[in-house]
Hints:
6-stranded parallel beta sheet, 43% helix, 14% strand
Amino acid sequence: MIEKVGLITLNQLENTVYSRTDQSLCTGESAMRSIFVGVEYAGKSTLIDLLGDYYRQRKVRIHGDDHFTIPDSTLSAPSREIMVDLPEDIKERMQRMQIHYHVDIIKKYACPLIAGWHIEEAIYADFYGDDPDSPYYKRYAYQFQRLYEAQVLEAHLPDIVMFHVTASDEEIARRMRENPHEYPIVREGDIAEIKRRFDEEIKQSLFTHAHRTVVLDTTGKMPQESFDELLALSEPLVTMGEVALRNIEVPQGEYEVKYVNGVRQMIPNP
Length: 270
């Protein structure tokens, strides 16, 4: 059971008191910077897709990166096949370079949606690095995980939220069997241990100690239900600009923004 250090859960939200005059909620930033971590099949990509659609419907530019798991799912099928068979030292260097690069992505883009990133890499490389049947490599650079977080936090961004997406062992196993990935990482017999390692790594995270971590348990929930929970639990951690953005009622489907006599209007496309 993860210790509740810097974490917000749904049951705690009703008892959470926070001031709207707090400086962290009153900056010019408008959109949340989101980092999604958690065991494979927990629902990270589904929530990122929903959050991306949510922002796009509100005309917010996003920067989505869900490509850290080996092999990169955004590559072509031939490229993924090549990546799996690359030598370990090349894989490690490629992953380390892109993980470090995304420190600047998180800091410079107004609305990044990042999946996996450094924590996933630390856990999978450590656990599966010696497994000849796994695409992962030995953990050459594990000690850099806190450094990446420190580099993000030193920018004093008011709207960083790390979402720990999880589910029960039974739920993860069911999703594995019903919708297997082309290149699966976690084996069914390893679910409990991998989840334990995520709990421990997230407990140690500087984001957690800075009270920037939210836990989302997707067990037995429809995607929209988990997404609504994401919005509710993250609200105390975001800026007034993000809250105002969420409060905008937007038309369904495509629409055009116009100003009439100084009033902003959203006109649905015919």
